[in-house]
Amino acid sequence: MVLADGHAEVASSWCDSVTTFQVLAVGHTLDGRIGEATAELTSRKPLVLQPKLPIEVTAGDQIDVPLSIANNTNNQQSVNRKIP
Predict the structure, then answer these.
(1) pTM of the model
(2) Terminal C-alpha separation, the chain
(3) Residues 46-77: pLDDT tens digits?
(4) Which end of the chain is more exposed for a tag (fewer CB within 10 A), N or C?
């Protein structure tokens, strides 16, 4: 339903996949004119921790594992890490 000011609200449920969704909205006026709009919505996890592991490791190797931390929100977040 479109409000008098020409705006509409839509509620929807989305899956938990990290992906991009394409949304298509189609409508018409009371006098028969038609229109459409498309948009892409990207689904991301708010905080991502990604280790960079080596391709090969041999028994007895001691490795350093760099950890990439990405904040995909507009809010500042703190991360506490504990290294044994």
Answers:
(1) 0.48
(2) 57
(3) 888 889 999 999 999 999 889 888 898 899 98
(4) C
